[in-house]
Amino acid sequence: MGADGRQAVGRGAGGGTVSERRSPQVPGWIARSVQSQTSAARPSTPRVPGVPKALGAPRVAASPVGVGLDSSTVRARMVQRIAAAGVANPQVLQAMATVERHRFVDSALVNQAYEDNSLPIGLGQTISKPSVVARMVELLLDSEAAKAGLRRVLEIGTGCGYQVAVLAMVAKEVYSIERLRGLHEKARGNLRPLRLPNVHLILGDGMAGFAGGAPYAGIISAAGGDNVPQAWCDQLAVGGRLVAPVVVAAGKQALLVIDKSSHGFKQTVLEAVNFVPLKSGIA
User: Fold this and answer.
1) CATH code of the domain covering residue 40
2) Is residue 140, in this structure, part of any structural domain at all?
3) By residue range, what is the domain housing residue 196?
4) What is the 3-state secondary structure (H, E, C) of 147-210?
5) Active-site residue, 128 included
6) Which pLDDT tens digit goes with each residue over 103-152?
7) Is residue 10 in a domain?
8) Low complexity bias: where (predicted)?
9) Which candidate in 72, 128, 131, 221 is catalytic?
């Protein structure tokens, strides 16, 4: 999984230009947390409506090894940058401020955990940029099916488990499938301390989706192919939304949003991104 998430403005599937999003005002609770340099002044983050109480505040290490500043402070600065780039959904911003990204990267890279970079996680895969994770999750929450709360979500490409943890903050139930056994086990180890009861990890071929949890209000992919597999479209609920990178021309990728209605599918091509290739099989 992973992406560098370049924010170039693309064109919609119908040829219309996708307008740039205006940067919203940074929520006050994020700004206040940046002003604090000590764990004693750490702000309390508002709880996401509809998310079980146990998920609202995963345990936070006061001084994570290798992170120069208090974890909540550097995380809040990361969220400020994400908000300034245009992500406005308060549930997404809260999730990004809550989940400790440094727990999902190798110890040698922990000082880079809150920079807006993709980082290697082994087996030729990467953890996506925080801004890309936030952008894609916000797109899921902007669907018809999510108006009353995002229910069941399928993630293609578990990777190290970071995006799963973010999704668990905003969705009722998350299924995540990974084809690489080593990463599947790594994600299980990374997520176990968080005790997220609404997360289900599956070792399997992501191109086939996971029919056992269908239909899904949202499907999100952390790998890009030439086409979106038909299985994903079949497993998407009416009113649901699929967000995935797809190859558009000359090997370049862009974010593709597919909305499913009772009349069919609507496709919208958004900004350029750079994800690892989508592959089939289990390894």
Assistant:
1) 3.40.50.150
2) yes
3) 28-273
4) CCCEEEEEEECCCCCHHHHHHHHHEEEEEEEECCHHHHHHHHHHHHHHCCCCEEEEECCHHHCC
5) yes
6) 999 999 999 999 999 999 999 999 999 999 999 999 999 999 999 899 99
7) no
8) 1-10
9) 128
